[in-house]
Amino acid sequence: VIVLALDQYKEDMGEYPASLKDLVKAPAENADQWQGPYLKGNDAPKDGFGNPFGYTLTQGAENPYELYSYG
């Protein structure tokens, strides 16, 4: 679900979000383009352990971002 939300955000905004919070609340920059929320809730998504997911943009890497759980 998060991957789909990230892809939809990129389609709407032209780039991946700086933070997973941008999937539930409009970012300060380009807020007029934001068509979210892309995920339900008022805060960044949490993993099955109740911890926030880790998310890092990886410019120039094979994958545009890393999404991970601290477990």
Protein architecture, described:
It contains 1 helix and 2 strands; from the N terminus they run H-E-E. Helix content is 17%, strand content 11%. The protein has 71 residues and is an alpha+beta fold. Strands 1-2 form a two-stranded antiparallel sheet. The two termini are 18 Å apart.
Summarize the structure in short.
The chain is of the alpha+beta class and 71 residues long. It contains one helix and two strands.
Biggest pleated-sheet summary: 2 strands, antiparallel
Q: What is the strand arrangement across the widest sheet?
A: 1-2
SSE sequence, one letter per element: HEE
Number of beta strands: 2
Q: How many DSSP helices?
A: 1
As a whole number of angstroms, the C-alpha radius of gyration is 12 Å
Observed structural traits:
71 residues, globular, alpha+beta, two-stranded antiparallel sheet
Which helices and strands appear, and what pairs or packs with what?
Layout: H1 2-13, E1 54-57, E2 65-68
Antiparallel strand pairs: 1-2
